[in-house]
Input
Amino acid sequence: MSALAQNEIFYGTGFLRDVQKLQHEAQEKLAQLLDILIVDTFDSRLHTKPLGAPLKGKYSFRITRDWCVAFEFSGQHTIKLLVVDHRNRIYKRLARL
Output
């Protein structure tokens, strides 16, 4: 039996700066969620969803009810984390990238 390939994660420009703006509790939860993301991008605890046009090819998952992470696949098992922001702003930010 072979093990499933784990995802490799890279951080986009500004992603870590966004994380520093989160409250400490949200930062801790994000760290836990990234551990899940490495193993299974579509684990139900992440609430991962593909984004529609004009953001097709990008995805988001929830940190909390109000805070999300946007990412894209750079390869089959390679994820680039793009931004962290409030759910009311994240899609507008992504459109500017």
Remarks:
- The chain has one domain: 8-96.
